[in-house]
């Protein structure tokens, strides 16, 4: 049974930031929702409430960066790039301010529907010069995201998980590297964020079906080590499958496709994720099933790649976690 | 760094330089020199406490954008001196005033006249819309409305650091149409950020007179209601500007609304009202007439732009 960690960001951020006068904690009226309410209460001198005014917050953070501070901005990811995109570009990304953009509720991890779900943020951030992109996939990565982000000489976009988060890894994020979770030689599976746990659920069933899966987890999306990926692609016989909590255009599916095309790799690639569609509001398991982001979707993708059915059904997959939607670890519904 | 000239002389010098440049190049941001001449002259000659320039009098060419591969990158802020705790900082929020701002740098001895010859030339850092690597600039403000927020963040940070230097913003009134301006004012009021702004209220914007594009109403009352200390003065009356800048604004941003005339000291520009944002001469005849008229207003000979 996988260990579940309650609110790993809350304690990790406080441990990392408290007492460091160069780090300021900015919030846009989502303080408890981003698990920084305790920090606010215990370290008010490092907390700056910016209200529901993201455009000003982004440029203000740029000004703080100019003054030598390293602001950690906390809000839902979607609110940090859609409305204030111009400010993100001009005040933070262009001048390489050391602003750490802690984006909560990545992809379909919120029941909030279209307005709350950042489904194209990686695509947007990948196309912004000077931007670094990190994504957390488990509690250990959430616990190490602050240190990883703050090691970057420039702005950093982080997809942060909140609430009850599974612990899948025992080593912190090492920026620029990728995790090799299994080293098979039939099919390469590349995942990030919450989709990595899904791919792990499918692994034993695929193994029983006789498939040897090589599984990579990406926490660093930009900059990206293309050579390492190409070595892994060279190690499998049949092709590559990507699975992401994001639209397949511009995310890690595109990243892998571009890497393969640039190197002239002639293997097949199947990109799983949101297929040119918005999502709607609902629970995470429901949305992941409905939009094909879960373990079963990966199995079907693998069957498509191999051109055969393995007869794997939901019952053959490792147990899914059943989150208590009314659990205390969730600050509120949204 | 003290200048030998009076602020009035500098304002006149700014207009003369922008006029000459616009004549030679068949157009330019003439009206902004009319409205903002006194404000920029006053900022640089009296208000700002700035150190000696740290960058060469003749600007270097464009040396690339900020990137990890460009370690020697620097902004154009060095023309305002070093960013020391005790010195003031200035942002030119409407970056299309760059021509006027460059002329100001020349008039106060911070840039060589050759700098203006580089204006809007390919490969030059003296860009038409001031970039952060352009002389006197420290951030990109070409997208209107972000300047006050950036200055507010810097001022807040400097307050935490205990800096004694002030943070100034030169603004334009069109920016009050942007929601971000009001977000910035409410944030300054909430966090007691004592940033200082002087706004060129010339009632003009790109499409024409502001009232014909988007009415903004009584902006002084709006600024006060959002939590600023706001005073309104005649933007061509230097004593009034001086007096306004002395206003106490404890725990609040200071916004000086400098009401100005967009054809001040170049009366013939009124012919072009209400399209004053960028004056490009429509005919050789117009260019010639404006040359003679404005030269007379400014007390100089017409520009021999044919050579």
Automatic annotation (TrEMBL), chain A:
InterPro entries: PDH/Transketolase, THDP-binding, Transketo_C/PFOR_II, Transketolase-like_Pyr-bd, Transketolase_C
Keyword vocabulary terms for this entry: Thiamine pyrophosphate
Cofactor(s), names only, from the UniProt record: thiamine diphosphate
Keyword presence, RNA-binding: no
Residue stretches making up the Transketolase-like pyrimidine-binding domain: 3-167
Family statement: Belongs to the transketolase family.
Protein name, as recorded: Transketolase
Organism: Marinibacterium profundimaris
UniProtKB/TrEMBL annotation, chain B:
A Pfam match: Transketolase_N
Ranges for domain Transketolase N-terminal: 82-260
Cofactor(s) named in the record: thiamine diphosphate
Keywords assigned: Thiamine pyrophosphate
InterPro entries noted in UniProt: THDP-binding (IPR029061), Transketolase_N (IPR005474)
Presence of keyword ATP-binding: no
Family indicated by similarity: Belongs to the transketolase family.
Protein's UniProt name: Transketolase
Species lineage: Bacteria, Pseudomonadati, Pseudomonadota, Alphaproteobacteria, Rhodobacterales
């Amino acid at each position: 049974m996988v260990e579940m960690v309650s609110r790993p960001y809350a304690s990790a951020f406080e441990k990392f930031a408290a007492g460091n006068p160069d780090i300021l904690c900015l919030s846009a009226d989502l303080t408890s929702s981003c698990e920084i309410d305790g920090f606010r209460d215990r370290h008010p001198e490092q907390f700056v409430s910016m209200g529901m005014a993201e455009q000003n917050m982004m440029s203000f953070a740029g000004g703080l960066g100019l003054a030598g501070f390293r602001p950690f901005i906390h809000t839902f990811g979607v609110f940090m790039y859609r409305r204030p995109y111009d400010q993100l570009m001009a005040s933070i990304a262009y001048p390489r301010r050391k602003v750490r953009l802690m984006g909560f509720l990545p992809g379909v991890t919120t029941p909030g529907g279209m307005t709350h779900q950042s489904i194209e943020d990686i695509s947007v951030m990948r196309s912004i010069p000077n931007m670094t992109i990190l994504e957390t996939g488990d509690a250990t990565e959430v616990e190490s995201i602050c240190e990883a982000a703050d090691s970057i000489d420039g702005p950093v976009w982080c997809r942060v998980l909140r609430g009850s988060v599974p612990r899948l890894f025992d080593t912190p994020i090492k920026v620029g590297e990728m995790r090799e979770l299994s080293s098979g030689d039939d099919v390469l599976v590349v995942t990030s964020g919450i989709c990595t746990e899904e791919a792990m659920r499918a692994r034993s069933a695929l193994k029983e079906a006789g498939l040897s899966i090589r599984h990579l987890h990406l926490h660093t999306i930009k900059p990206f080590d293309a050579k390492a990926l190409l070595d892994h692609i060279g190690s499998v016989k049949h092709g590559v499958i990507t699975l992401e909590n994001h639209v397949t255009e511009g995310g890690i599916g595109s990243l892998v496709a571009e890497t393969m095309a640039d190197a002239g790799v002639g293997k097949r690639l199947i990109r799983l994720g949101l297929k040119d569609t918005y999502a709607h509001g609902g629970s995470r398991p429901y949305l992941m099933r409905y939009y094909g982001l879960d373990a079963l979707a990966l199995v079907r993708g693998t069957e498509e790649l191999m051109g055969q059915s393995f007869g794997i059904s939901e019952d053959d997959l490792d147990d899914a976690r059943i989150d208590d939607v009314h659990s205390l670890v969730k600050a509120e519904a949204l | 760094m003290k200048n030998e000239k009076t602020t009035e002389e500098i304002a006149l010098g700014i207009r003369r330089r922008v006029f000459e440049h616009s004549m030679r190049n068949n157009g330019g941001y003439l009206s902004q020199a009319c409205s903002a001449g006194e404000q920029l002259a006053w900022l640089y000659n009296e208000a700002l406490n700035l150190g000696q320039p740290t960058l060469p009098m003749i600007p270097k060419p464009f040396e690339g954008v900020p990137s990890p591969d460009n370690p020697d990158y620097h902004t154009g802020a060095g023309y305002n001196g070093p960013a020391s705790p005790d010195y003031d900082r200035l942002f030119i929020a409407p970056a299309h005033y760059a021509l006027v701002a460059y002329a100001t740098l020349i008039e106060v001895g911070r840039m060589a006249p050759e700098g203006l010859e580089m204006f809007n030339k390919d490969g030059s850092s003296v860009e038409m819309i001031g970039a952060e690597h352009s002389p006197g600039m420290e951030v990109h403000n070409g997208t209107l409305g972000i300047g006050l927020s950036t200055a507010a963040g810097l001022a807040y940070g400097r307050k935490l650091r205990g800096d004694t230097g002030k943070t100034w913003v030169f603004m334009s009134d069109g920016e009050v149409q942007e929601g971000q301006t009001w977000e910035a004012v409410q944030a300054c009021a909430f966090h007691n950020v004592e940033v200082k702004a002087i706004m060129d209220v010339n009632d003009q914007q790109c499409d024409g007179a502001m009232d014909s594009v988007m009415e903004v109403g009584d902006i002084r009352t709006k600024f006060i209601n959002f939590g600023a200390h706001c005073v309104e003065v005649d933007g061509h009356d230097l004593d009034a500007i001086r007096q306004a800048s002395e206003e106490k604004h404890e725990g609040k941003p200071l916004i000086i609304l400098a009401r100005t005339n967009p054809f001040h000291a170049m009366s013939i520009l009124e012919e072009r009202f209400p399209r004053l944002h960028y004056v490009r001469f429509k005919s050789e005849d117009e260019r010639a007439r404006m040359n003679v008229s404005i030269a007379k207003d400014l007390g100089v000979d017409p520009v021999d732009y044919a050579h």
